[in-house]
Specification:
It is built from 19 helices and no strands. It is mainly alpha-helical. It has one domain: MFS general substrate transporter like domains (Growth Hormone, Chain: A, Up-down Bundle). Helix 12 runs parallel beside helix 18 and helix 16 packs antiparallel against helix 17. It starts with a helix and ends in a 9-residue tail after the last helix. 55% of the residues are buried.
Length: 422
């Protein structure tokens, strides 16, 4: 077989819904990474403290958790497409508040960071409503033998699209200053999210048979039923899925304690230049691009559990190098973080799909997302308090400690299925 023929066979699954989601992710991920480069510094520049930054993270993650149960229930009962397309519009519009926060003219007594708080909460609600449907549609659209590759390609495409984002953010920072550059960045976020929303609206195809569009009162009344069914779903999936979720959640707690404060620590404690930071942070997506395909093929060939265990150890090592680092050590830690991310995302997503029947995936995704966002909310609050009131190093040390129980739980209790779910 020719090289082109082999290439076509290897990637023949990139079509239909999966291809539409990949294209929309290219736009969304590029957009999101632009302001993410300086997000922590932006919020502090609007008058917030590290603790307030943690509270904003708390509010955002609680909002992200709020609709996971009905989101998963509705995705399984009424279908994926309408949730994904309509809620993407909502996320797009919520970012307007991020852009106008520094120059809001109507109430000078309200702190500027308040608009970030409101925008983060709205974004979280819209995002949480469609995330279970999005995850379920990916699983629905990938053949079982290509799931590792499929989830890796999501990482690859996302990383390829986000690689130039920090450099663009750095150029905006250099020419327009921190606040002005971030306002422009958030304007681009709104525009690109709207384009992605229209693409999803017109090009996605429903994967649930006989899916119907529910009325608003049905969405509200579905919450108690969704809550009951989402908790009850754990009786319908293997115990290994529960242990996989618990292991992942512990690691997530440690990561969330540091995530909002990485740029602040790097620039204010390690004294890395802000413009330099924009270029050095691009190491993460570059690493993902390089490793996505080989890691995806590896996950499809060997046990999914092995890359999960390796990635947890990599995260702990990366945090240790970062917290006591200089420019070179920070670069090394970011390479390790990129490697850990692509390994964990590909293997966790594939193993979760292997363990979960198709008709339960929306509810499982909804429960996992709900619980993890609650954990991330607490992690953000704890991280902000520790950073401001104990020491800047403490949140990162907490993340290192969290990797140990996460690793042991996955090692001992997670078992791979003899037959993978379709």
């Amino acid at each position: 077989m020719t090289f082109l023929g082999t290439l076509k066979r290897e990637f023949s699954f990139i079509r239909g819904n999966y291809a539409v989601l990949v294209v929309s992710w290219i736009m969304i991920d590029f957009a999101m990474e632009l302001p993410a480069t300086y997000y922590g510094l932006y919020v502090l520049g609007l008058g917030a403290t590290e603790t307030i930054l943690g509270v904003i993270g708390l509010s955002q993650f609680l909002a992200l958790a709020s609709m996971q149960f009905p989101g998963g229930y509705l995705a399984d009962k009424y279908g994926r497409k309408w949730l994904i397309s309509t809620m993407t519009f909502g996320v797009a519009l919520s970012f307007i508040l991020y852009a106008i926060a520094p120059s809001w003219p109507f109430n000078s007594t309200m702190p500027s960071w308040t608009f970030i708080l409101i925008g983060a909460t709205l974004m979280g609600v819209f995002n949480s409503t469609y995330q279970p449907a999005l995850n379920a549609m990916i699983s629905d659209s990938l053949p079982a033998e290509k799931r590792g590759m499929g989830f890796s390609i999501v990482m690859l495409i996302a990383s390829a699209s986000t690689t130039p984002s920090p450099a663009v953010a750095g150029l905006l920072r250099a020419h327009f200053g921190l606040i002005g550059g971030m306002q422009i960045a958030y304007g681009l976020v709104v525009a690109l999210f709207l384009v992605a929303a229209f693409l999803r609206l017109f090009r996605l195809r429903e994967t649930i048979v006989n899916a119907t569009k529910p009325r608003l009162n049905e969405i509200i009344h579905s919450y108690p039923t969704a809550l009951k069914e989402s908790f009850g779903v754990w009786r319908k999936v293997p115990k290994s899925m529960l242990y996989l979720f618990l292991s992942f959640s512990i690691a997530i707690f440690g990561f969330s304690a540091t995530n909002l404060f990485t740029v602040i620590y790097a620039t204010r404690v390690l004294h890395i230049d802000e413009i330099m930071w924009a270029f050095i942070i691009a190491i993460i997506p570059v690493t993902t691009i390089i490793l996505a395909i080989p890691v995806g093929k590896l996950v499809d060939k060997i046990k999914r559990k092995i890359p999960i265990l390796i990635s947890i150890l990599i995260f702990g090592l990366a945090m240790w190098i970062f917290v006591y680092g200089d420019l070179t050590k920070v670069a090394i830690s970011l390479i390790l973080l990129g490697a850990g991310q692509v390994m964990l995302n590909a293997s966790f997503g594939a193993l979760q799909a292997d363990l979960t029947p198709k008709e339960q995936r929306g509810k499982v995704n909804g429960f996992i997302n709900f619980a993890n966002y609650i954990i991330m909310a607490l992690g953000s609050l704890v991280g902000g308090y520790l950073y401001e009131h104990v020491s800047p190093q403490t949140p990162f040390l907490l993340a290192i400690v969290a990797t140990l129980p996460s690793f042991l739980l996955a090692l001992v209790f997670v078992k791979e299925p003899e037959k993978r779910e379709e």
